[in-house]
Design brief:
Bound molecules: acetoacetyl-coenzyme A, nicotinamide-adenine-dinucleotide
Family: Belongs to the 3-hydroxyacyl-CoA dehydrogenase family.
Shape: globular
Keywords: Oxidoreductase
InterPro entries: 3-OHacyl-CoA_DH, 3-OHacyl-CoA_DH_NAD-bd, 3HC_DH_C, 6-PGluconate_DH-like_C_sf, 6PGD_dom2, NAD(P)-bd_dom_sf
Number of strands: 8
CATH topology of the largest domain: Rossmann fold
CATH architecture of the largest domain: 3-Layer(aba) Sandwich
Order of helices and strands: EHEHHEEHEHEEHEHHHHH
Pfam family, one: 3HCDH_N
Helix content: 40-55%
Strand order of the largest sheet: 3-2-1-4-5-6-7-8
Protein name: 3-hydroxybutyryl-CoA dehydrogenase
Length: 288
């Protein structure tokens, strides 16, 4: 396998996913540098990770010492230039093609190792679009983690027509051998495997609420008790974030033009109203 074993990781964004990915990397002994655009966002990201590590200690999954060590391995920056020596970078900022493309353009100039893995945690944007923003698309790959990252054991690995075998092997080895995640491979099409199946289901649940066919609570109860899902589709939409579900639906609709993927008006109105789900305190349910 080409390249040294990955120990220096960069994470772009410390929202729910970036924080979760940074946490699992730090817990797996990597040196982790996290980018956020402002000090305030970096401080919020750090507290999010520390809260999750505390939760690990109180549930007996981590010792106090392991929590301390993981927190020492985490550093924050607002300068992408600090990512020059990273062997793996995972981008986890908002699901917006233009914003992600700009980050990949900059990262490509900064990261020096020709075999470094430049990964996106995008839920739906075809990875080739990000690869083509760089001079060396062979380094670009999708590494799609699942929410909450410390709990869910899957990474979808998305290689493009341009991703090199060395880079995909390096990414897989890191996800599997270092983080202990199970890996499935997907071709590069919007939604990959999981969201191609999950998102139409979430959108159908929103359409059910919209039509008055059943209540939010009953739809969720039906899927939890009738199908043994850990949470119902509307609670899950709240967990993922309504803005993110809308953005995923938009990308999938753009790719396939299937009415199934088109975001229903109720979802659009809730996003416009700032009811983004758990992260904003209100979505289909109220939090906090
Ligand atoms: N960080 C760390 N640990 C967490 C956690 C978090 N954010 N949330 C929950 N946990 C841990 C808890 O510590 C607990 O561990 P123990 O059993 O060892 O104590 C365990 O997970 C269960 O948590 P809770 O008892 O608090 O709550 P729960 O049983 O209701 O589970 C859940 C919460 C893990 C979120 C569970 O409901 C679940 O798995 N839901 C489905 C989530 C899902 O489908 N995610 C995929 C979304 S799609 C996606 O991610 C892709 C995309 O692109 C949009
Ligand atoms: P989030 O809203 O929790 O965090 C968004 C992050 O993007 C924050 O770090 C924020 O500071 C940053 N950001 C926002 N606007 C920005 C801009 N203009 N420029 C640079 N950074 C900006 O979102 P999230 O749930 O962590 O999702 C992040 C990525 O992970 C998305 O691509 C999403 O599709 C993907 N993803 C989400 C989930 C999920 O369940 N939420 C699961 C898997 C993958």
């Amino acid at each position: 396998m080409a390249g040294e074993k990955i120990s220096r990781v960069g994470i772009i964004g410390a929202g729910q996913m970036g924080a979760g990915i940074a946490e699992v990397c730090a817990r797996a002994n990597a040196d982790v540098l996290v980018y956020e655009s402002t000090r305030e966002l970096a401080a919020a990201g750090r507290s999010r990770i520390l809260r999750s590590l505390d939760r690990g200690v109180s549930s007996g999954k981590l010792t106090e010492r392991e929590r301390e060590q993981a927190s020492w391995r985490l550093r924050f920056t607002s300068d992408l230039g600090d990512f020059a020596d990273r062997q793996l970078v995972v981008e986890a900022i908002i699901e917006d093609e233009e914003v992600k493309t700009q980050i990949f353009r900059e990262l490509d100039k900064v990261v020096t190792d020709p075999n470094a893995v430049l990964a996106s945690n995008t839920s739906s944007i075809p990875i080739m679009k990000l690869g083509m923003a760089t001079e060396n698309a062979s380094r670009v790959i999708g590494m799609h983690f699942f929410n909450p990252v410390p709990v869910l054991p899957l990474v979808e690995l998305v290689t493009t027509l341009m991703t090199s075998t060395e880079v995909s092997e390096r990414a897989e080895a890191f996800a599997h051998d270092v983080l202990g995640k199970q890996v499935v491979r997907s071709s590069d099409r919007s939604g990959f495997v999981v969201n191609a199946l999950l998102v139409p289901y979430l959108l159908s649940a929103v359409r059910m609420v919209e039509s008055g066919f059943a209540t939010v609570e009953d739809i969720d109860k039906a899927m939890v008790l009738g199908c043994a899902h850990p949470m119902g589709p509307l609670k899950l939409t709240d967990l993922v974030g309504l803005d993110t579900v809308k953005a995923i639906a938009d990308s999938m609709y753009e790719e396939f033009k299937e009415p199934l993927y088109s975001p229903p008006p109720l979802l659009l109105r809730m996003v416009e109203a700032g009811r983004l789900g758990k992260k904003s305190g209100r979505g289909f349910y109220q939090y906090g």
